[in-house]
User: Which sequence fits this backbone?
């Protein structure tokens, strides 16, 4: 589950990091590990493979500098890449459990890019609450099994919402921590 | 632990400080009252001891001959001056070894006299014709305090020649001056029934102190919840129940100790004022209002101990549980057995109607036991009555205020009644005393100041009182100057009538006889039967009073069988004055010269005033009791109002948020206090009047007269004061039910 | 139904609301969320005419509320609004059914009729058999349901609920919310419920968030009715 979520967002996260400024592959890995890795460092192989795939899709371009080794290559985000990051940030996630990491990645990136993180979170909040309302409706009308299943979802969504609230309350501190 | 308790007590914040001050003040008030009572009892005893020596002429112990002592002739007489009693003792030493007299250096010789300081002052300021001429010779000194019951005592010790006194049947020869207690002296006539005064002082003190005690109790409970939380927290962190008790006890004891000290101050500050209250009919010497060491120690140690006990009782609950006070539970309702002592008291008093005990002690015991039973019964029955009325109110209520108030009272009638129980005692005592005294005074119909009974002086010449061998006074002996005194309207001579008929109880006829022509000129003395020439009359032309006899109608004297008045000896002289002091005193002084060794002429009113005056003073004391205890009861009520509000702070403020008018909450608080106050007042007044009726019926066979306007004014004023105190707490309601209280915390 | 426009209110130096705007449609069930101290209870108190804002306007059914005097606002609360708070709202001296009947009694209904009307709510709110209990003899959830019955018995236009499940466990709290929403829908009562719990807010039709004394609306504001 963890890998799947991670796999889903690594290219977009790297693109987001590139939107700050053109970077070397090593810098990208270091920043990724610092903010998003959390004990699971990104292998160099995956970094370069992902960057290669992004370059193939025209989302980044590679500026080659004189010298040897991988550090010669600097990656620059393209218009296509930037708009993809934009679209991804704005779009709320499907209110399903275990999306903290993605949500977190979005928030941190939004802050790094000077985007309105609070709005993203509020949008997410609305999506969550809408889902909770649906589940509550299911619970009120349904049988015990439905109610219990709905409760399971509700409690998890509630946990996300709490995290969203806590994050909103500490956005200022977080901004300081990631922009330094 | 005690040090910690002390620190908490003095540094416990404003709330604790307020509680300390309130408790201390209440204790001070209670202590002051208690000390005043004890001192009053002591002073009454001391005063009585000072009266003792005046009985020397009648006591066997002093009249018995003693070897080596030259006896002194002694003649004690009662005299009046401006309505005050004036004691006069004529003495004559028979030799140099006369017994020592208190207050004077030696027995005065013939033509000399000693006077009390009060009389000394009068002699200097009053014209001699009104007073000074009654004393022959010259004043040689002032009598010392040791011989005076009161600083106001009017007393003269007049020296005479032995030859003047030895012939008098009423003079006695004494070989010593009586001293000590007079209780064993059966024939003693001068002095007080100090048992009666002690009992009445104790009752008054109880009536005053009870509300104070209730107030102390209520004040101790003030903000008890907060304090209980604090103590509960201490239990939670491991304080033992004993340690918490010590803490609580220290706090109350500090307050009580400070209050007791302050109480001594209050007492000594009030003492000069207290001494001037003529409680026994005469004022006290301030120094007589003294406390014995036993009194001082008992009060000084007993009160703080009492407060400590009260604190322990008040904090019982906390000592049990470290989790503090549990959920509010409805206390057990009081049961009907609480009525039994009250009914028993009424029954006891009723039983004695028509079965009056023979002895004074028996009477005192019977009525006192009944009264005590009724007081205790009222205090016991109060919660039950409060509950019944409250249930009735709650069941009948259509408005929410009455419903809530009724329910709360019915839930915990004890708490509601506790606040007003002091009032019950005070109102009962006052009403019973007022009812009994008003009726007694009314039955004795104290003469109006302008009636013949108050304005006419009578000098009697009973044959058996006259000095043997001395000339019998006749009409011609009536001093001519008597009629010339300004303010004297008439001088009437009454002659001796048919004494045989007068002694026959079946014929209501006086022993005197007077010409109808004389009587016709002075209709205030009554009238002759139509066609009669002479009338059989009483020597004072007024006669004994009969209960229920109305003075409004003119008295018609029965015709006498004796018509030849000149053949009859003189029985009495009646001097009618305009009622002014000057005329009365001048006439008295002159009239007294007709019978120099006899009792002094006096008005009917003066003879009767003694008992009535004492009673009126009792009534005034009862007024003091009620005036003091009603506001104290009001304060207790106010404190319990505050406690009741704090209890329901949240629901009340929620109600206010939902748009309930503060008027409705005020009505709740008002009903919760006014209902018990009025119920209790009504019951106490009813019981007091019932007790007075039963007492009057049993002891004197008098009917009950409605108490006078002053009584209603005082009860009404006291109730109004109590309501004002309650009303003073109402602004608190608005404050503590503000929206901030209802915020979710 | 209810509208707040630019409402500001300070307690001494501390600002509680700084320009709050809110619209509540008739029959709507609105959840007001927000962190502690954000001013959500204060907003509710302003909407209900308990507090008067320093500036801004409060409208109820086309009528200015904030300009009314205390007496008129009390009358409005008594006659048009119902309230449910977190705890401790029942008068301890009265039985449960008398507590429910209280608003009717205050409105002048005879006691017998008021108690009879109040009793019907006991069936609706699963409280049968508890009519004669005192507040001390009720569980938290029972007491809240009695309070709910009291809030609704006089058929108010708006029910204001301030953390109505705040002292209850989640299951009991949801039972109370379920009944609250059900009864309000049935009667067409507008509900404003202040809560910090998302699962309570999920019972509402719509939610707003109060942050730093301002209202953030996540959904489209309803048209003013």
Assistant:
């Amino acid at each position: 589950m963890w890998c799947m979520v991670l796999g889903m967002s690594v290219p977009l996260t790297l693109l987001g990091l590139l939107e700050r400024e053109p970077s070397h592959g090593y810098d990208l890995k270091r920043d990724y590990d610092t903010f998003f890795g959390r004990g699971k460092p990104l292998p160099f192989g995956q970094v370069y493979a992902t960057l290669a795939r992004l370059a193939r899709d025209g989302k980044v371009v590679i500026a080659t500098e004189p010298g040897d080794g991988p550090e010669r290559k600097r990656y620059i985000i393209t218009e296509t890449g930037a708009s993809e990051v934009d679209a991804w940030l704005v779009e709320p996630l499907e209110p399903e459990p275990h999306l903290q990491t993605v949500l977190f990645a979005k928030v941190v990136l939004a802050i790094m890019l000077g985007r309105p993180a609070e709005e993203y979170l509020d949008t997410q909040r609305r999506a969550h609450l809408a889902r909770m309302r649906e589940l509550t409706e299911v619970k009120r009308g349904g049988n015990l099994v439905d109610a219990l299943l709905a409760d399971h979802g509700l409690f998890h969504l509630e946990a996300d919402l709490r995290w969203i609230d806590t994050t909103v309350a500490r956005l200022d501190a977080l901004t300081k921590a990631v922009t330094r | 632990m005690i040090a910690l308790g002390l620190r908490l007590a003095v540094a416990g914040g404003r709330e604790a400080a307020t509680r300390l001050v309130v408790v201390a003040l209440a204790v001070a008030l209670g202590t002051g009252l208690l000390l005043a009572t004890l001192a009053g009892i002591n002073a009454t005893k001391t005063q009585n001891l000072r009266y003792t020596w005046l009985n020397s002429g009648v006591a066997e112990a002093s009249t018995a001959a003693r070897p080596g002592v030259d006896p002194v002739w002694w003649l004690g007489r009662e005299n009046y001056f401006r309505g005050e009693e004036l004691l006069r003792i004529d003495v004559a030493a028979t030799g140099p070894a006369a017994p020592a007299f208190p207050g004077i250096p030696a027995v005065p010789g013939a033509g000399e006299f000693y006077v009390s300081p009060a009389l000394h002052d009068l002699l200097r300021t009053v014209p001699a014709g009104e007073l000074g001429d009654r004393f022959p010779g010259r004043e040689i000194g002032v009598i010392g305090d040791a011989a005076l019951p009161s600083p106001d005592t009017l007393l003269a010790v007049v020296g005479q020649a032995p030859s003047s006194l030895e012939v008098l049947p009423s003079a006695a020869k004494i070989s010593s001056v009586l001293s000590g207690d007079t209780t064993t002296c059966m024939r003693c006539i001068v002095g007080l029934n100090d048992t009666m005064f002690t009992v009445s002082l104790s009752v008054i003190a109880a009536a005053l102190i009870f509300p104070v005690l209730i107030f102390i109790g209520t004040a101790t409970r003030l903000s008890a919840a907060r304090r209980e939380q604090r103590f509960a927290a201490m239990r939670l962190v491991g304080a033992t129940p004993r340690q918490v008790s010590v803490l609580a006890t220290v706090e109350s004891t500090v307050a009580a100790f400070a209050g007791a000290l302050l109480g001594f101050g209050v007492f000594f500050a009030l003492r000069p004022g207290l001494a001037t209250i003529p409680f026994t009919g005469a004022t006290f010497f301030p120094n007589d209002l003294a406390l014995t060491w036993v009194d001082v120690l008992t009060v000084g140690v007993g009160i703080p101990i009492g407060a400590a006990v009260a604190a322990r009782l008040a904090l019982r609950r906390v000592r049990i549980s470290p989790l503090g006070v549990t959920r509010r539970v409805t206390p057990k309702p009081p049961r009907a057995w609480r009525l039994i002592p009250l009914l028993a008291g009424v029954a006891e008093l009723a039983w004695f109607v028509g079965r009056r005990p023979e002895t004074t002690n028996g009477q005192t015991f019977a009525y006192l036991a009944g009264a005590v039973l009724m007081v205790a019964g009222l205090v016991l029955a109060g919660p039950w009555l409060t509950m019944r009325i409250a249930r009735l109110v709650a069941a009948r209520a259509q408005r929410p205020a009455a419903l809530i108030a009724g329910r709360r009272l019915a839930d915990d009638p004890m708490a509601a009644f506790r606040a007003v129980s002091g009032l019950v005692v005070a109102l009962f005592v006052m009403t019973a005393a007022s009812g009994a005294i008003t009726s007694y005074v009314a039955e004795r119909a104290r003469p109006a100041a302008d009636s013949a009974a108050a304005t006419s002086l009578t000098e009697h010449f009973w044959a058996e009182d006259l000095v043997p061998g001395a000339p019998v006074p006749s009409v011609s002996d009536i001093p001519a100057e008597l009629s010339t005194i300004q303010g004297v309207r008439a001088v009437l001579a009454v002659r001796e009538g048919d004494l045989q008929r007068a002694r026959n109880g079946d014929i209501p006829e006086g022993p005197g006889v007077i010409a109808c022509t004389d009587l016709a000129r002075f209709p205030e003395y009554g009238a002759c039967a139509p066609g009669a020439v002479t009338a059989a009359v009483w020597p004072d032309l007024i006669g004994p009073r009969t209960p229920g006899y109305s003075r409004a109608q003119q008295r018609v004297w029965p015709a006498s069988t004796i018509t030849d008045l000149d053949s009859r000896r003189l029985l009495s002289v009646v001097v009618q004055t305009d009622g002014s002091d000057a005329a009365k005193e001048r006439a008295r002084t002159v009239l007294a010269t007709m019978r120099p060794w006899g009792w002094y002429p006096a008005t009917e009113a003066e003879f009767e005033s003694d008992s009535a005056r004492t009673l009126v003073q009792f009534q005034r004391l009862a007024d003091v009791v009620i005036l003091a205890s009603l506001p104290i009861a009001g304060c207790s009520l106010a404190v319990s109002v505050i406690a009741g509000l704090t209890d329901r702070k949240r629901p009340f403020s929620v109600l206010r948020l939902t748009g309930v008018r503060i008027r409705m909450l005020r009505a709740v608080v008002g009903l919760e206090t006014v209902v018990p106050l009025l119920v209790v007042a009504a019951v106490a007044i009813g019981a007091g009047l019932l007790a007075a009726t039963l007492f009057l019926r049993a002891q004197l066979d008098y009917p009950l007269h409605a108490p006078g306007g002053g009584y209603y004014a005082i009860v009404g004023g006291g109730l109004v004061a109590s309501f004002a105190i309650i009303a003073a707490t109402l602004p608190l309601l608005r404050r503590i039910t503000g929206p901030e209280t209802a915020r979710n915390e | 139904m209810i509208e707040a426009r630019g409402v500001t209110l300070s307690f001494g130096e501390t600002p509680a609301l700084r320009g709050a705007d809110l619209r509540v449609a008739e029959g709507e069930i609105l959840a007001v969320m927000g962190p502690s101290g954000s001013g959500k209870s204060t907003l509710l108190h302003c909407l209900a005419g308990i507090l008067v804002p320093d500036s801004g306007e409060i409208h109820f059914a086309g009528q200015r509320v904030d300009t009314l005097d205390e007496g008129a606002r009390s009358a409005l609360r008594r006659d048009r609004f119902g309230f449910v708070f977190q705890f401790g709202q029942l008068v301890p001296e009265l039985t449960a059914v008398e507590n429910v009947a209280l608003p009717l009694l205050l409105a002048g209904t005879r006691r017998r009729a008021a108690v009879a009307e109040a009793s019907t709510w006991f069936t609706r709110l699963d409280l049968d058999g508890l009519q004669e209990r005192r507040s001390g003899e009720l569980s938290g959830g029972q007491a809240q349901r009695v309070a709910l019955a009291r809030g609704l018995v006089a058929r108010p236009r708006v029910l204001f609920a301030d953390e109505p499940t705040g002292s209850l466990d989640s299951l009991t709290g949801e039972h109370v919310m379920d009944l609250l929403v059900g009864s309000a829908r049935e009667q067409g009562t507008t509900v404003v419920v202040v809560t910090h719990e998302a699962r309570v807010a999920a019972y509402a039709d719509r939610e707003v968030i109060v942050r730093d004394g301002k209202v953030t609306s996540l959904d489209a504001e309803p048209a003013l009715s």
Summary: Chain C has a mean pLDDT of 87.
